[in-house]
């Protein structure tokens, strides 16, 4: 019988705590079992194994990010919405760098992640409709936005901006460049 209160969602939450403390490489069934107070075999009542747990962690990260992005773009449009989303993306990575490392590279081609990936994609696509971007133009713009946010935030999280200039200013310049490209 599973420990009272232990569920798949609770296992994933414990896994996220492990990732936050030890990084993605520290995510093991033993570490999650220790955190939840059960023996590792007991986790199999909630997840099929480490691969499924990693997928569920990736989905949870996408859901968290999508919720944040949705919250910051609601009531905004155009440049204001795009800038808010890009800032929110960077802030998530700054707040949860290890957790962000669990973000899947290509969630739209993984059956376990496609729903969460599509929900996130819809936030981006919806935001870009205000620029008249549809179909492949919207996909290209979404890729550009993700590349800007992911690339900058990942480099920043790994300590890659050691020069004296303010990274905030650099990021704002990237946002301005992207916004200019959307308007052209």
TrEMBL record:
Gene3D superfamilies: Homeodomain-like, Tetracycline Repressor, domain 2
Domain of life according to the entry: Bacteria
InterPro entries according to UniProt: Homeodomain-like_sf, HTH-type_TetR-like_transc_reg, HTH_TetR, MT1864/Rv1816-like_C, Tet_transcr_reg_TetR-rel_C_sf
Pfam families, per database record: TetR_C_33, TetR_N
Domain HTH tetR-type: from-to ranges: 5-65
DNA-binding region: 28-47
Record keywords: DNA-binding, Transcription, Transcription regulation
Protein name (Swiss-Prot/TrEMBL): WHG domain-containing protein
UniProt organism field: Plantactinospora sonchi
């Amino acid at each position: 019988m599973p420990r009272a209160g232990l569920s798949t969602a609770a296992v994933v939450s414990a896994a996220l705590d492990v990732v936050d403390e030890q990084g993605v490489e520290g995510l093991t069934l033993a570490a999650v079992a220790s955190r939840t107070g059960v023996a590792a075999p007991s986790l199999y009542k909630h997840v099929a194994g480490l691969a499924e747990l990693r997928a569920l962690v990736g989905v949870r990260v996408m859901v968290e990010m999508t919720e944040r992005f949705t919250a910051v773009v609601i009531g905004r449009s155009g440049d204001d919405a795009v800038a808010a989303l890009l800032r929110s993306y960077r802030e998530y990575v700054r707040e949860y760098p290890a957790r962000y490392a669990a973000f899947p590279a290509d969630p739209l081609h993984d059956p376990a992640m496609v729903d969460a990936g599509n929900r996130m994609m819809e936030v981006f696509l919806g935001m870009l409709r205000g620029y008249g971007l549809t179909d492949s133009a919207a996909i290209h713009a979404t890729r550009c936005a993700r590349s800007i946010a992911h690339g900058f935030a990942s480099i920043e999280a790994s300590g890659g901006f050691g020069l004296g200039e303010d990274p905030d200013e650099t990021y704002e310049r990237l946002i301005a460049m992207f916004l200019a490209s959307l308007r052209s």
